[in-house]
Amino acid sequence: MFKLYKLMANKFKCLSFLTISLTLLQVVSFLVLPILLGQLTRLIGENAYLIQNNLSTNRPITIEILRINFLCQSHQSALMHLGGYFALFLIIGTISAMCASLLASYVSQAGSKQIRSCLWKHLGELSQKDIEAFSNAKILTRFTIDISRIQTGLMSFLRMLIIGPFNLVLGLVFALLTNLQLSMIFLVVIPLLTLTMVISGVIWNPIQKKEQEMYDKINIESRENILGAKVIKSYNMEQIQWNKFQNVNKNWGTTTSKSWIIFTITFNFIEIISNIAIAFIVFFVGKQTSKENIADFSKSIGNGVTFMNYVMTVTFGVVASSFTTFNIFKANVSSKRIFEIMNKKPDIAKIKSDKLIVNGEIEFSHVSFKYYESAKSNVLEDISFTLKPGKVLGIIGPTGSGKSTIAKLLNLDFKTQDGLVTIDGHNIQEIDTDSLRKNISHVYQNPCLLSGTIKSNLLLAKPNATDEEIELAAKNGCAFEYINKFKEKFEHVVEQKGANLSGGQKQRLSIAQGLIKRPKILILDDSTSALDARTEAMVRNNIKEEFKYEKISLVIIAQKISAIIDADEILVLNQGKIIDRGNHEELISRDGLYKEIAYSQLGGNNE
């Protein structure tokens, strides 16, 4: 967990040191109070006895604190001094505790916020391949439960890790200096408390690990059921999924119950041990006072009061130290889980260079690719083609033939294992990242719209776009017509993932989003699949007219012949290989997969 401090600003490190210092001051101040309270009890008892027996209270008296004797001129003077010191240490301890608590709370919250920001920033630097190494549910758990446990761990480290051990050690030292005989009780109390906490920890830690694993499983099950709600309902699988979720939920509930049962039993044992210790002190002091003269009676009572406080202090020290260890252990586990992501080096690093996209000429030269090193075969095999600015490249093939993989390589979501992808003659892996993102628009089949408004989603692609640019992009994407029907127009609320829009509306809005930044390269990755033939043709024509002077490089990946029928060149893919290429007329004129697809979709009217 200490590695996380490296992610925190120096300001928080300084505040952490101040928090620890104030906590130490609090502990020492509060540990002095039982001694002063014991002496005050003794003086009040003696004073009452002297007054009752008409004896003078103005005679000198010796006060013993931690084996050090202090001479006071009278009982009244001693009471005033002890009362003043008691109030002083109480005020110092209280102010220190309040300030330390506020600082610890601030540091733990602000520090965990900064750690969360660092995690978010690092995730933004990872490639799609890197992110896919972790499940969405696990990433969400890192941002929520793990960060929360780290926050608790930071709070424990700054406060309880100081309060617990120092209460234990200094409480024991002060007790020994107060009364050696009564201190012998700690030879029994401390081992019993330690044994209780150790046994509890041995049983509790594996349950805590399992509980954390169950959190992940619940997140995964919940996410699958929410995202797959339509499929679950369409196949009448509600009961099956309910049973699956209930099974996971039951396991989590059982694990959590075990954790709380152990927690409760442990505290009951601790309470029994401390109460027995206090009862022994009362018995011992009572037995001693019955044998003593009246002069020593008050002193024994004072020692008894002091010791009962120190029993509670030492007990609290053992318990606090143990539970702080558990909290830091949990925070350490969460820290390791976060560093699994933080230590993940980006497969594709962000590049700052003078190699920029100017024209958008694309070339794939003998490119082969597979998603995982362990995969037996490539997803793409020896892919070569060139796309000049102002031209349209169509890519078609059956599902799983590698069409979208070409788009991902062109967008640098993944790196090629063999071969070379260049834009304007530059290796795509050496092009300035900002230039790459600015000049390539990748429009996906399943648009990822964020909750907000239509306008806010369009502005994601170009934050400084004017209202005229927004309207033009919407018109070119054939989205303006339906947007204009909404009462709020471009301020119409979009729910997460565009849940309140139809499939076609989402695709048209996504196309407009890709067009608004006027890229040099536009990739339509089956992004017109939900559009009718007329709207699809209008989108293609709008793009052609809008960018006829800018010579955009357009890549259209499609399942439908109608989407690529006007392309300058069409690549026909099957099992990751280019099995044919040419324009529509050339491909339809010869037997092959393209002609089969054309006949199945267009029938005899394929010209």
UniProtKB/TrEMBL annotation:
InterPro entries: AAA+_ATPase, ABC1_TM_dom, ABC1_TM_sf, ABC_transporter-like_ATP-bd, ABC_transporter-like_CS, P-loop_NTPase, Type_1_exporter
Statement: the UniProt record of this protein carries the keyword Ubl conjugation: no
GO cellular component terms, A-Z: plasma membrane
Domain of life of the source: Bacteria
GO molecular function annotation: ABC-type oligopeptide transporter activity; ATP binding; ATP hydrolysis activity
UniProt entry keywords in alphabetical sequence: ATP-binding, Cell membrane, Membrane, Nucleotide-binding, Transmembrane, Transmembrane helix, Transport
Domain ABC transporter: 362-600
Protein's UniProt keywords contain Cell membrane: yes
ABC transmembrane type-1 domain: residues covered: 17-318
Localization, UniProt: Cell membrane
Pfam families xrefs: ABC_membrane, ABC_tran
Transmembrane segments: 85-107, 157-177, 183-204, 260-285, 305-329
Topology in the lipid bilayer: Multi-pass membrane protein
Broad class of where this protein is predominantly found: membrane
Family membership: Belongs to the ABC transporter superfamily.
Record protein name field: ABC transporter ATP binding protein
Organism: Metamycoplasma hominis (strain ATCC 23114 / DSM 25592 / NBRC 14850 / NCTC 10111 / PG21) (Mycoplasma hominis)
